[in-house]
Amino acid sequence: MNQLIVNTNNLNFSYNKSEQDIENLELKVPKGSIYGFLGPNGSGKSTTIRLLLGLLKKTSGTVVLFGETFNNKTRLKILDQVGALIENPSLYEHLDAVDNLRIAANYRQNISFTRIHEVLEIVKLTHAKNKKIKEYSLGMKQRLGLAMSLLSNPELIILDEPTNGLDPKGIIEMRTLIKDLNETYGTTIFISSHLLSEIERTCTHVGIIRNGKMIYQDTVASLKVSKGSNIKLDIEVDLPNEALSVLKDLNMGNVALLDDFLQIEVCSKEDITKVIDVLRASKINIYQVTIKNNLEELFLSLTEN
Amino acid sequence: MTAISFYISSIKNEFIKLKRTFAFWLTIISAILFPILFFIAYFLKHETNTPEAGINPWEKFMTIQIENSIPFFIPMFIVLITSLIMQIEHKSLGLKHLFALPVPKWSIYFGKLSIVIFAIITTYVYYYLAILLSGFLLGLIHPDLAFLNFQPEHLKYINMLTISFVASLGIIGIQFWLSFRYKNFIVPLGLGMFLAIIGIIVSQAPQSIYFPYSFSVLSVSLGDKMPLILGVSSVTVFSVICFLVTSVLGYIHIKKLNIK
């Protein structure tokens, strides 16, 4: 896992001179990882992806992919191992799915016709392969875009907001697909998203960007640990005020009542049982206990000023 | 992979992209437009157009048609077809995808430019065939027009069309660059149409020999008065130079462009 597939050093870029859009970005994507690139809208995710692919000319710094510095000489060799889906997929709407894939395959050369049908099968579009893209839904277009990036069995797949416009079922399918690719072929996958829950469920590594600056970069596991071990609970009961006073007597830490939900912070999972036992002993009915997502708050605290 | 295989696959793809597009139909519509008009005119007034005995009717039919339609129509057609072909790419947000593929950028730029030129040549060919066919049909319907009694002087007319095509190369280079650069097709289309009209208006002035948008008119209107450079028509020379310079500059510019 030590080898870096994507490695940028002091990457800088600006669309115009007055503003710095990407500032000293150090992106480190280990081989075989699923790297989540997280940030609010307009934070520079797409710009970074375009810099990685050489679509934008960096102001300074280096981009190293597969251990080779990206420049005019290495461009073709590097891009040959990359499949990318950048924002809205580039599709010819007056053509059908097979023609669109044929075009991508022709450009890449040495891609067989059977591979076109294989990738259609992978993204479950075989039934619509002869339909014009005009008639496709946004989710279908997104999947076809993904199929295009899979054509050459690349070592690195870059996906820019791949779940945009997908329905919940589509999102789950995309997630499974990404994990499958990673596990079966060892493909390194770089996903950008503004949805933390997406990244949390799929990725092994995470980088959080704000205003063009990397503010956090590590494994998802250590991100969870870094937040500390306290668990926040939301509890719904029939007698919230009584429950509040009962819990305050426990002296466990912060207890509050918000929108008829009790909020309490406990140190370990065992404490959850303790809280429930105390409430039940006071004849208070419990309707639900939920553990609040720590990462969501962390993400907000990191990305908000 | 060799340069030639990149170029061939780029051309192959451009043909697939043209399928079922308006750009494809425009080449046919533009080619048959004037022959149909001339067909109707001859059909309705065949008495006045009946040639005197022994005169080849093709001469008047072909010359009038080519001289009155090509010089004015071709620049407009080039502006339109170039914008339309590039619009296929812009509409699909294709450039960011193409430039992120392991394909040299020149093969994309010049592959597309080749297709534009191919579409224009095809239109010339369709146009010529349409004139021949309309003359032949007129001969069948009204034998007194004598189209069936004579052969057209193919070489002469093909030569006229070739000169007109070469004179148009200059604006093909300019229009292609503009269409590639600007996503919004109003820019190349508006500017191109404006310059094409200016080209017709100023074609009377002697300086118009340096203005590419006048070349199409000049290639026909100047006739024997065309100044020569090393024995070659100066409009031809300037047009080819303009094409080469704008194509190379256009490519260098596009290569360095930030694709947003």
Q: How would you summarize the topology of this molecule?
A:
The complex is a heterodimer of chains A (305) and B (260).
Chain A: E1 4-13, E2 22-25, E3 28-30, E4 34-38, H1 45-52, E5 60-65, E6 68-69, H2 75-79, E7 82-85, H3 97-108, H4 113-122, H5 138-150, E8 156-160, H6 168-185, E9 188-193, H7 196-202, E10 205-210, E11 213-219, H8 220-226, E12 231-237, H9 240-250, E13 255-258, E14 261-266, H10 269-281, E15 286-291, H11 294-303
Parallel strand pairs in A: 4-9, 4-10, 7-8, 8-9
Antiparallel strand pairs in A: 1-2, 1-3, 1-5, 5-6, 10-11, 12-14, 12-15, 13-14
Chain B: H1 3-18, H2 22-44, H3 57-91, H4 94-98, H5 105-141, H6 154-181, H7 186-201, H8 215-221, E1 228-229, E2 232-233, H9 234-255
Antiparallel strand pairs in B: 1-2
Helix pairs in contact in B: 1-5, 2-3, 2-5, 3-5, 3-6, 3-7, 3-8, 5-6, 5-9, 6-7, 6-8, 6-9
How would you briefly describe this protein structure?
Chain A has 11 helices and 15 strands. Chain A has 305 residues and is α/β, with parallel strands linked by helices. Chain A has 2 domains: 222 residues, 3-Layer(aba) Sandwich (Rossmann fold), CATH 3.40.50.300; 65 residues, 2-Layer Sandwich (Alpha-Beta Plaits).
Give an overview of the whole structure:
With 305 residues, chain A is an alpha/beta fold. Chain A folds into two domains: 4-225, 3-Layer(aba) Sandwich (Rossmann fold), CATH 3.40.50.300; 229-293, Reverse transcriptase/Diguanylate cyclase domain (Alpha-Beta Plaits), CATH 3.30.70.270. Chain A has eleven helices and 15 strands. Chain A has a six-stranded mixed sheet with strand order 7-8-9-4-10-11, with helices on both faces. In chain A, strands 1, 2, 3, 5 and 6 form a five-stranded antiparallel sheet that branches. A four-stranded antiparallel sheet of chain A has the order 13-14-12-15, with helices on one face. Chain A is globular, with a radius of gyration of 24 Å. Chain B has a two-stranded antiparallel sheet. In chain B, helix 6 (154-181) packs parallel to helix 9 (234-255). Chain B is built from nine helices and two strands; from the N terminus they run H-H-H-H-H-H-H-H-E-E-H. In chain B, a hairpin with a 2-residue loop joins strand 1 (228-229) and strand 2. Chain B has one domain. Chain B starts with a helix and ends in a 5-residue tail after the last helix. Chain B is an all-alpha fold. Chain B has helices spanning 3-18, 22-44, 57-91, 94-98, 105-141, 154-181, 186-201, 215-221, 234-255; strands at residues 228-229, 232-233. Chain A binds chain B through residues 15, 50, 53-57, 75-80, 82, 84, 86-95, 99, 102-104, 106-109, 148, and chain B through 1, 5, 9-10, 12-13, 16-17, 19-21, 88, 91-104, 256, 258-260.
